[in-house]
Structure formats: C-alpha cells, structure tokens
Automatic annotation (TrEMBL):
PROSITE patterns: PROKAR_LIPOPROTEIN. This is Lipoprotein. It comes from Pyxidicoccus parkwayensis. Residues 1-21 form the signal peptide. It comes from the Bacteria. Keywords: Signal. InterPro entries: CarboxyPept-like_regulatory, Cupredoxin. Residues 20-48 are annotated as: Disordered.
Amino acid sequence: MFRPFLLASLLLALASGCRESAPPPPPVAGNPDTPAARPTPVATGWGTVEGRIRLSGTPPPPARMPTTGTVVSVCGEQAEDRSLVVGGEGSLAYVVVSAKDGAALPAARQSPPEPVLDQKRCLYDPPVLAARAGGTLALRNSDPLVHNVRAASGANRAFFNVAMPLEGMTVRRPLPAAPGEVPIRCDVHPWMHSVVRTFDHGYFTTSGADGRFRLELPEGSHTLVFWHERLPELARTVNMKNGETVQVDLEWSADQLK
C-alpha cells in the first residue's frame, strides 16, 4: 500500500537533483562582462626594443653614511648611497623599463626570472628590482651579520618583516598582489634601502651597469615607460614589427635629479 508513495518520493528527489546540476545558461553574445566576449589576445609576431640610458652632465657624488662600530670590520666605516648609479659615459643603471599596455597584451614569451635581493656589506643588492605583483621575492644574507628585511605596501608599513641572522641564509616572501612600489629597509642598519617595482604583466626589465636594456614585445604600437627613483618618469612610443629590432636611447639631465 506504500509503494505509490515511495515511487512518487523517489521521482521527486531525482527531479530536484536534476534541477541542481543543470548547467548555467550560456553567456549572452555581445555582453562585454562575459568571458566569451573577452577573447584572449594572441600575438602574431614579435619584435625587440633595445637601447642605452644615460645621465648627461655631472652627477652629484654619492652620499656616504657612517656605519656603526659593530659592523665596521665587514662593511667599512661608511656606506655609499646607491639610489643613483652612474657608470662610464653617463650610463645609468637600475632604470625600470616597462610596457604601459602590458596587462592588455598576450603573455610574454619568457617569464621574468625570480627576483633576488641580497644583503652584501650592509647594502641591499641590487638597489632596485622589477618583479611580478603577487610573485615571490627571494631574500639572501651574504653578510656574517644580523639583518632584517622590512617591506612596506601602501599604508601597510610592514607587509613583511623578516629577520636574517645567519650568513648564507635564503628565504622567500610573497609580494603584494597590487602592482606598485614596494620600499624595503633594514631596521638594524637604517642606511640600507631598496625598492621593488611590481607589475601585473611580464613586460618589464631594468638597465644594466652599462645603461643598456632589452625587451621583447608583440607586434604593434606600445608606450614604454622609463622609471628611476630620483628622476621624472619618461615615456616613448615604439612601433614593433615581427623580427625587427627598434633602438630607443634615452637621456636625462643631472639637473633633473631629485
């Protein structure tokens, strides 16, 4: 006498399960908010932009800051400020070069290497780094001294703060997810300073000791942004064609230094 009731309950449960597992409706064509309406850009060809960055005029001598008695044997009596590193013929090191439209471009053909910030002779090396936002920063201590690495992010004065008491130790910490500037300091040795410029794409590089840089870009028109901690930001437009190399040389004047 209960069989009709049990059969009806079973059919009702199956119907409910089908309703719960039904696929969502297809995206509406032409709606820019749906994934189907945002095709992933595909590069049809690649070119290379390269150049040399210089500082004209006479740069000021680097500032020197006294160290403390406990580190003199390792770091010397004075530490040199490396926020401005100028080589022969005015070559300017540690300029960050990036594509302004990088986030809208296809993925870069080569992923940038993991950035490494070392601590050598009571200085951060290098003084400027470029990296992916939300990526990993490797921290290394090459000194037989206690250092710490404190990274700020926006209003957060200590995005991370890592004590590094051992020579040769390496640790890794995540960078902020939002692109921008990440200042880094050592509370033990207040003259130590570095900055990490982060991006939400892989189209960036830094100039070397000779002021030269090289960056691979997809075909098309792009705006390159040149950033230095102590100089006004500059931009240049490049038109890339498949297999071609575009030369972009840039020069700041020493009287533009902050």
